[in-house]
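Quick question, first post here. What does this chain look like in 3D?
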Amino acid sequence: MTEVGEAFEKLVGIMSRLRSPEGCPWDREQTHESLKKYMLEETYEVLEAIDQGDADELKSELGDLLLQILFHAQLASEQGMFTIKDVIECISAKLIHRHPHVFGEASVASAEEVLHRWERIKAEEPGYESRTSILDGIPRALPALARAMDVSKRAAGAGFEWSDIQAVLDKVQEEVAELRRELDAGDRERISQEIGDLLFTVVNVARWAKVDAEDALRKMIDRFCSRFRQIEETARTSGRSLEDMSIQEMDAIWDRAKSERCEGFQ
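> Answer (accepted):
Ran it through. Tokens below.
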């Protein structure tokens, strides 16, 4: 057995021991339902480690995420549903089947062609015959921006698409104008709908620019927090509160923080 195989077998054994009568009371109480929130938390912690560029933290968080997968497989094994071996064999078979250009005789010219072929192959697999829309299969539980990106990609792949990015930008301006009208009218339901339309259109701008909207917004929030903390720090060091500062002072600190960040990338 390889070192990787030995390490994996050891981890599987640890998980089994934790669930045993001699194991941990908390682990024995868990169910697929109770573990859902931890799967989500660990996934976001992996994303944060990637954003931070911290290899040690990423290694640790990937381990935590792997534990969640093993936990669910252990529960399923105890219920006679499947084992971690079945999970591994399932994904191995999928990867081989969906990459005929690697494991078969097919050839592709680009990553985009790979994605189109991937969707066609998936559509022919068991379990997909009940789907009546190309939008079926996109999880509703995805974060809204990520789901919007997947929906727009599927629709565009079927030909429901703008001619170029300028047309998408024009649509953004159109949605902004419609939002302004609804804000003036004061209908909260219509305002909510127009904000949704605007956000979805901006996601399409991101798609045309080959930028992940979810990732772009997450990084923008980080930048906002960093700059706002500089405003807070300036207030503290001057013995003042934020309420004592004018918006002009805050804007000046904000612009300075923004300028310093830009210079750091030059």
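The radius of gyration is 25 Å.
The longest helix spans residues 213-237.
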